[in-house]
Design brief:
293 residues, Glutaredoxin, 10% strand
């Protein structure tokens, strides 16, 4: 039984990222359907998810539609009680729910001035006082969760929970706009940037290669502060493999990594791999299985 998830541009749609992480990080099967923001694709896609008005939207295996991220989250918690979306400790769950609700409704200065853009990072975005006030509040609630419940791991409540999914786009905003935060907050940001699931999402956004001009700012740029991917490039075949590592279909698009050529069934499969090869387990398994001994 598989859910359907409607999302927008991976590089820019912060709420889509949250919705996708609910499924990706907790092992809930989902089929993803995409649209390009600010085009008629959005309404065409949402016609299949009525009465939802925005992405993300979810259709359950039984055909029920859920809009709004908190409603999606709570539906998944109810339907998948063993997935671990909320912390196990009752006091931690209280805090996590409160943090998620505050994120859903608040921090309007950060959200308004610093739209999510996973394709850019700036040296200095000259944040307004209102943005800095939002960041100070975010740091406060992050540290409160980490101090009380974070001993078991690098996330807000030790292990990954829905609260981390909700704050993932905030972490990317700090990275994109180089917002000033403490070392502890920066460490938490880097935990998101190095997470394989997030890196796969970002690589898929790079593969989509969509540019939304309103998301770009006239600031000096710097390299993306996350891990440096392995260097791969598009090339011509033939390849070492005859079947795409993801679909099993015949290959038609190719990349070169460390002197060897690999094939994929379409440009998106190739390009998402090219942008961050080591975070795609099926590709790495294929690559390592044929590595010289």
């Amino acid at each position: 039984m598989t859910y359907e998830l409607a999302i927008g541009d991976r590089s820019y749609s912060s709420w889509s990222l949250r919705g996708w992480l609910f499924f990706e990080k907790f092992g809930i099967p989902v089929k993803v359907r995409t649209c390009v923001l600010y085009t008629d694709q959005v309404q065409r896609l949402l016609e299949d998810f009525a009465p939802a008005r925005l992405v993300p939207a979810v259709r359950t295996p039984e055909g029920e539609v859920i809009g709004e991220s908190i409603a999606i989250l709570e539906t998944l918690v109810e339907r998948h009680p063993d997935a671990g979306l909320w912390p196990d400790d009752p006091a931690a769950r209280i805090m996590a729910r409160y943090m998620v609700a505050e994120m859903h409704a608040g921090f309007t200065a950060v959200r308004g001035d610093c739209a999510m853009n996973l394709l850019k990072s700036y040296q200095d975005s000259a944040p307004r006082a209102e943005v800095l006030a939002d960041i100070a509040r975010i740091e406060l609630i992050w540290s409160r969760a980490r101090d009380r419940f974070g001993a078991g791991g690098p996330w807000l409540f030790g292990r990954y929970t829905a609260a981390d999914a909700f704050f993932a786009p905030v972490a990317t905003r700090i990275a994109t706009y180089n917002l000033p935060v403490s070392k502890a907050a920066q460490d938490y940001v880097m935990t998101h940037l190095t997470d394989p699931s997030f890196r796969r999402w970002r690589a898929m956004g790079q593969a989509e290669n969509l540019v939304q001009p309103s998301y770009y700012k006239p600031y000096a740029e710097r390299p993306w502060p996350g891990p440096t991917p392995l260097k791969a490039e598009a090339c011509k075949g033939p390849s070492l493999n005859e079947a795409c590592p993801y679909s099993g279909k015949p290959v038609s698009h190719f990349l070169r990594l460390e002197g060897r050529v690999w094939g994929f069934c379409n440009a998106f499969c190739r390009d998402k791999t090219m942008h961050d090869p080591e975070v795609w387990p099926k590709f790495m398994e294929m690559s390592e299985a044929s590595a010289p001994r």
